[in-house]
Amino acid sequence: MKLTLKIWRQPDASTAGKMHTYDVDDVSADMSFLEMLDVLNEQLNARGEEPIAFDSDCREGICGMCGLMINGEAHGPVTTTTCQLHMRSFVDGETITIEPWRSDAFPVLKDLVVDRGSFDRIIQAGGYISVNTGSAPEAHSVPVPRDNAVRAFNVATCIGCGACVAACPNGSASLFMGAKITHLGELPQGQPERDSRVTNMVAQHDHEGFGGCTNIGACSAACPKEIPLDVISQLNKDLRTAIKHGH
Amino acid sequence: MTDMPDTTLTNHPSHDVPLEVDTDDAAGYYTPGAPIKDTKAPSGPIADRWQTRKFEAKLVNPANRRKLNVIIVGTGLAGASAAATMGEAGYNVKSFCYQDSPRRAHSIAAQGGINAAKNYKEDGDSAHRLFYDTVKGGDYRSRESNVYRLAEVSVNIIDQCVAQGVPFAREYGGLLDNRSFGGVQVSRTFYARGQTGQQLLIGAYQALERQVAAGTVKTYTRHEMLELIVVDGTARGIITRDMVTGKIDTHLADVVVLASGGYGNVFYLSTNAMGCNVTAAWRAHRKGAYMANPCYTQIHPTCIPVSGAHQSKLTLMSESLRNDGRIWVPKKKADCEKDPRDIAEEDRDYFLERIYPSFGNLVPRDIASRAAKNMCDEGRGVGPEVEGVRRGVYLDFADAIQRLGRDGVEEKYDNLLDMYERITGENPYEQPMRIYPAVHYVMGGLWVDYDLQSTIPGLFVTGEANFSDHGANRLGASALMQGLADGYFVLPHTIRDYLADGPFEKISEDHPAVVEAKKSVTDRIEHFLTVNGTRSVDSYHRELGNIMWEYCGMERTETGLKKAIDLIRGLKDDFYRNVKVLGTADSLNQSLEKAGRVADFFELGELMCIDALNRRESCGGHFRGESQTEDGEALRHDDQFAYVAAWEYAGETPVLHKEELIYTAIEMKQRSYK
């Protein structure tokens, strides 16, 4: 199939960017979206234009490195990561608009590449259980009810791609934070730091310039791992409890 | 020809070559070197060696630790766990990764699980049994002392991960669930659905970020190590490139740890992430670190086949699919284009069931992979033609759906079948899936002693980047175990023995060795940007991958390997003269990043072929056409090849140092799966 691509190009963080239009032929329905961009980049390279920079690594939907706004939707029209989106989701002759994640807290580094270091700093603020190597008790000493273990796992599948932020009109990272709060809060091991975790993570989130949550739900709809919206309720609940406890 | 070949066994083109046990196939390609006599493992009963080593390793006073600078390259399981643990102990750690966050390292993609000898099922498991299974699975080409230690510390890993909040699968009573894996007879695999690697890595990542907050670890994301700094024979730092600004920086330290993963991407197409590369390890190799058994590659049978020339990577599906799926190809070549549902039962060749009646579809990975390749080489592959050959075999769930019902199949395999449909656009409940083998893991890597120290003092190597534990073949669910064993429980003890003599004399950035290292990096970058040739880096990488896959893949022969070495050398020369890298040195430039990596893959590929050429035996993932039994099974030659091949860099003619493998706790046997 033949496609027209409108792609955001920006030389670096401090230079303004703009949309460029490219035509790409010989696209097969079996290509992944990123392989289609690989093909375009080979063509650009051949004619002496610098290839378009975009992030990807595992290309199997688990590392969270890739992520593009495709026709205005985070990761495009299918509930999956950009690397797992295939060209059979598009039709011959279509014009596709491709932009980087939209958020003040994810500044553009070049073309479609953004800086998501703010997510790491939110985790640094409290997204962990403090246990030094070697000091752990025997694994079976603390049973975890199966339902809690299952819920913890389901939300721990977050890949930290940032689609939730990109999709949110407020640029909030509440779904990302809520997933971590819920994962660790479901487990007995996560209880001692439960209050400090939520207050510190929320403070860092706000400091990074992410917006507040107004319960729109675009985050959960865009999430390739289908993290449910109720993790944000859990986040708010934990935050209220922590404040009540004097945090 | 339309009839099925008249064979009861698979065709092996080189089977008629007589085995000459005393040939030196690689003569002229290498120089013999002195054998490696001492691996620094303590003597005494195997079960006591690790305790002995831990006791004898010198201690570092807590007050001195913050004065000791540690560089760790890579943030997968082996790197993140080591950085977190060293940080907790109070050392001053710098952690580097090429991704935008430490959480993205490719350990995250491991699906199946992690082995540990907890014996929670009371099914007779023990550290000794895990040790035994791992040595046997590695086809008796691993080092006994290291493997025993791996089995011994496996239990601590589970405790640590559970305490961190890793959400392992649990039973209704709240205790941890286990499953069996990879042909062993006990249930010792801990898992978090099909995402065990992700959950373990997030655990290690969180521990690492906790140390960043504590100020003991500083992370450098989007930084690539491009050179090792060696001063007076010891590793003292690295040269990195900031992949956003292009800035070349010098980082000096008392010790350097490489946890930079495996080099499967030398094949271009593999299940590795796009960025996985050998550069950190190869730069160290060029500076004096020996590379051990580079030809040991694991090829996984159940991956989604290549769909066209655009293919950028391959996706693995858990081999649990082989429990219920039946593997077949058409008997007649003419049927290969047909809709498989229109091919009558009597026209199908269930080749694994035919050749291996007792194990059938459940033969080990290497055997299943090779059989599939043979079918396609005969012209009976299915799926789209890519460069003139159909490379795929059917994996059919029709019988399983009849037996278990669609619901039964969904319950067991739904996530895998969904993934298949998302990638191929074909519904596996309605038509057979297509699978083909793909490069998945490398057992070879930088040579290390019992302390995980390389042949360069002060350079330690952990995880897939080293060679130490898996011999010629890795068992399922053992990669995660090794990465975390090295990083949490082994390296932090052995490295202190080295660091106890530090802090070492301060090195100035003006030191000739530092200046030289930095200059070699900038010269190389300058070269790539000024060649201004006609071919893209990716086109060279793809061609190199084809050579490696064809001649150094599932079956290797003397003629094929010699041809490959010639082809690689020719292609490498062309690459340096004709590659086209646009953009600048001082900006985010993904073509430039790839150029450096592919340049190192060329040299590695050559060494892999030389290593494979030298090893005229078949063992684990290394199958030499000249060394097989009458019925086509791998044939080891313990009398000649029971050694680790440790290669010293010396340009195109490397030096081979042999480390003899001595088994005292286990008796060597030949595998059989008939």
Question: Could you please describe the fold and organization of this structure?
Answer:
The complex is a heterodimer of chains A (247) and B (674). Chain A is α+β, with helices and mostly antiparallel strands. Chain A has 8 helices and 7 strands; from the N terminus they run ββαβββββααααααα. In chain A, the strands form 2 sheets. Chain A has a 5-stranded mixed beta sheet. In chain A, a hairpin with a 2-residue loop joins β3 (69-70) and β4. In chain A, α2 packs antiparallel against α6, α3 packs antiparallel against α5 (174-185) and α5 packs antiparallel against α6 (194-207). The longest helix of chain A has 15 residues, at 230-244. Chain B is α+β, with helices and mostly antiparallel strands and 674 residues long. Chain B has helices at 49-56, 62-65, 77-89, 127-137, 144-164, 196-214, 279-286, 351-355, 365-377, 398-424, 479-499, 512-531, 537-551, 558-578, 590-614, 638-641, and strands spanning 31-32, 69-73, 92-96, 114-115, 189-190, 217-220, 223-231, 234-242, 248-252, 255-258, 291-292, 297-303, 326-330, 348-349, 385-386, 389-390, 393-396, 433-442, 445-446, 459-461, 643-648, 655-660. In chain B, the strands form 6 sheets. Chain B has a 5-stranded mixed beta sheet. Chain B has a 5-stranded parallel beta sheet with strand order 6-3-2-10-20. In chain B, 58% of the residues are buried.
